[in-house]
Amino acid sequence: xxxxxxxxxxxxxxxxxxxxxxxxxxxxxxxxxxxxxxxxxxxxxxxxxxxxxxxxxxxxxxxxxxxxxxxxxxxxxxxxxxxxxxxxxxxxxxxxxxxxxxxxxxxxxxxxxxxxxxxxxxxxxxxxxxxxxxxxxxxxxxxxxxxxxxxxxxxxxxxxxxxxxxxxxxxxxxxxxxxxxxxxxxxxxxxxxxxxxxx
Length: 199
Known about the structure:
Elements: E1 3-4, H1 16-20, E2 29-32, E3 35-38, H2 44-56, E4 73-77, E5 81-84, E6 87-89, E7 93-97, E8 116-121, H3 124-140, E9 145-150, E10 155-162, E11 165-173, E12 177-178, E13 188-189
Parallel strand pairs: 8-9
Antiparallel strand pairs: 1-3, 2-3, 4-7, 5-6, 7-8, 9-10, 10-11, 12-13
């Protein structure tokens, strides 16, 4: 279960400086709405799905594209991103279009808002945090695309930012093949996210 750190007094909105006070070896935390929240240690299903997403999007992680490898993105694993003073997130995966991040990222934390984030949910606590709290935070900060990957239900939910928050574009299970925004230049076999062999 995600737990608040005792280092964040109730009347104090945490900032990145507070995060840095946590010893680096123990720093698996985010700041959500000014509260330091400890991230869960990922289990096997989480790690396997993480790999599946990277495998599925591998063709986008390059400078130039082609018919089978569209390119155009920088995709990072668990980057620390400061969205604002009291919102410092560590999404499972985040992507930036090369037009917005032409150079390799540097520094800690990153401060450029991602163009896409992906959270991998393995239990009900993660569903509440990622599906409700972080969904609002990402929308409030203008992240255009948000994927929620549910390892237990073996489902992919694809959201696009609209005028009033995120709108659902896709909600699909492992047996389907889809074109999932913003990576719709290539077809995605959803089962690869959950351990199926790539075709």
